[in-house]
Each structure stands twice: as C-alpha cells, then as structure tokens.
Amino acid sequence: MAAGLAVLASLATACGGGTHTARTPTSFTSPGPLPTRRLTPVFADPETCPEPPREKREIKPAAAPSGWETLWTEGAQGTALIDATVTADGTIWAAHADTSRRHVPWRWNGLSWTPVGFPEDLSEIQTVAAESKDRALVFGRRGNDGYAASYEAGRWRVETIPGQGGWPSFTSSGPWVADHELTRRWNGGAWQAGRLSFPVRALASFGADTWAVGDFTAARWDGGGWQKIGMPSLRVPEDAYVLWDDVAVLGNGHAWVFGRASWEEAGPVRDDNEPWIVYRSFGLRFAEGSWRCVWGLGTREAEPDGKGGMWLVAADDELWHLSGDGRWTRQRLPVPSGWSASVHKLALRPGTTEVYAVGSAGPKDSSGHGLNGVRVQAKAMMWRFRSDEGRQASP
What we know:
By secondary structure, the protein is mostly beta strands. Helix content is 2%, strand content 48%. The chain has a five-stranded mixed beta sheet, with no helix packed on it. Strands 2-27-26-25-24 form a five-stranded mixed beta sheet, with no helix packed on it. A four-stranded antiparallel beta sheet has the order 3-30-29-28, with no helix packed on it. Strand 25 and strand 26 (318-322) form a beta hairpin. The model is unreliable at 1-30 and 390-395 (pLDDT under 50).
C-alpha cells in the first residue's frame, strides 16, 4: 500500500554511516515538528454497523478474464518478495527474503532484479519506500530498536530509531512513515515528526490524501494537521478480538478500512471441549461523510487502481477488483499448473494505472514452511496489471 517516499540528499547527509556498512548509529532526530493545527473532527454516519450476518460474504464478485501477467519468477526455492514500492520512473524497490531470515533490498530496472548491498546487521526489513532508482529508504527492526537506512548515490546511511515501549512496527506510504503513535513526514527537505493519539496499524496515501487507522480510530491528514474521523461501532461481543489490517485511499474523499473480528460463541462446546470461535472479516467504506459496513469483505492488502477503484487480495492467487463505478470482479493470478500464489504486497505506480503484485508461488501440496512465512518449495514471483486506459494523471 506504499507509494514512493521522497528521500532527498539532505536526509542522507543527516545520517551516519559508510558504503554498505554502518558506523555506530546515532539516535534518530527530526529537524522539526509537524503542524499541530486543531481540526474539527468528522462525526461520520452510521454510528453502528449491522450485526454480522451468518453468510460468509455480502459481495459476490463476477469472474473475469485475468488481465494480470507474470513478469518474473525466481529460479531458487524458499524465496519471496515481502514488500515493494514503485516509483514514478518505473523502478521497483523490494525486500527479498529467503528461509534463512535474511532480508535484502532488491531493485528492478524494468527487465531484471539487482540485489543492493546492505549492512549485514539489518536483516529484518518491515517496509521499503523510494523516490527513484537512486533514492530509497528501508525501515526495520534491529534488536528492540528500529532503524532507518537511506540509500543515496550508491551508499547506505543508517540511524537508530529508539523503541516506543515495544518492538518497532513500521508502516509507510507516500511521504509518511509511522511507528506506533509516532508519525514522520518528509516535506521535501527535512523530516517532520508528530504523535497521534492512537497506535497506527495501517497507513495509506493517494496523492495528497493520507489516512492513518488504529484501534477503532482513524485520522486524515489535510495538509496542515490530522483530522479525526469518527469510526462506526462494530456490533460484535465486547470481548471480541479485532485486528485492523489495511486502509486503501482512492481519492476524492473515498477510503476503505479492512479488518477482522473473532470471539467465542455462546452455547455447546465442540467435541474436544473447546469453544466455537466465530471469525468475521469486514470492509468499511467512507464516502461523503458516511460509512458503509460490508461484512465478509476482508483483506490484509489493498491498493488503489489509479482510476477511482481498488484491488485487494482475496485468497491465494485470487484478486478482487472494485471499479470506479462500483462493479466487483475477481481475477486469478497466472501460476503454473498445480501451484498457488501468496501475495505479500500490491503497489501502484504513481501517475498510472499499473499495479504490481509481489510475493511467491509454489506447489499446492507443499508442507514445508521456512522462516518468515516463506514456503520452502515456493519461489519469489512478481505480476503486473495494466489497464487499457494506460497512463493517468496524478491526483
């Protein structure tokens, strides 16, 4: 869900380090604070979502011929691309993983991947962002702290980001990155730091429109401050466990928030004396100051399509598409016969309708699992969808 993050020369100058290695890093500091202008919250309707239905899905998309093409398949097994971002010039930066826990930044030039030398102690990459083929930024975890590694003019600079009372949990999109309650924005010349009143679980941008979503809380950046958006209440038991998976910003004030809820069902227990657990996924659509709740519409990865709609990962190698006029369709990713895909990230190329999917694919009956969720017999793969409309103007 990340567009290119502007990483300019002044950031590289501010960080300490050497080519492909890092000196003892300094504490992460920000040159200035984010604006703190007080904004009037948006109290959106409805206040409460309907009770979850028993049927699995409210939306049943029509099958459509796949417009996705396979761009690349790795030869080695036990590999995956776990995150990726596409820049306006068509360069793709990704985090490549194998079963040894090693994550390495890779760069795609339109024809092939090239590993980019990376400090040995920065193995746990959480998110990758970039501005061009020469400027990129990687956030991840090192011990109990986080790190920011900026790539500029062929060199890496590394800074430590102290932990915020727990392991770092970075999410990035556009010029933004968040770690728990802390947010940072690149304004074209310096980082600006701020703090939200809730831990950010998902962050997404489209053009100048940015959303941050946490536990039953959402906020939208309007250019001068964060504006709180009232979230609908889910009519689930009080002890339900709710996870917030992703947010997709479609432009023109439209956004979708996705999550999952689970709880123990009252009544007779199972044959093994364990309680029945109810699982319900949901999608919350925000438009014109109102929410619409859709039960059974869940995903951990969604991305705008560049023309008012979005793609989301439904299951395995199936992707669902919502068009700008409200039509739902489903398409399959092309994989070899007997294989299934696992998509880790969707990424839109800014200013176009090109969407990329990265992850891995392997035999359906594979029982071997490596570390980091990478299947031993799976191979890293990348796919692309290009709309007939071709390039679109940036919002």
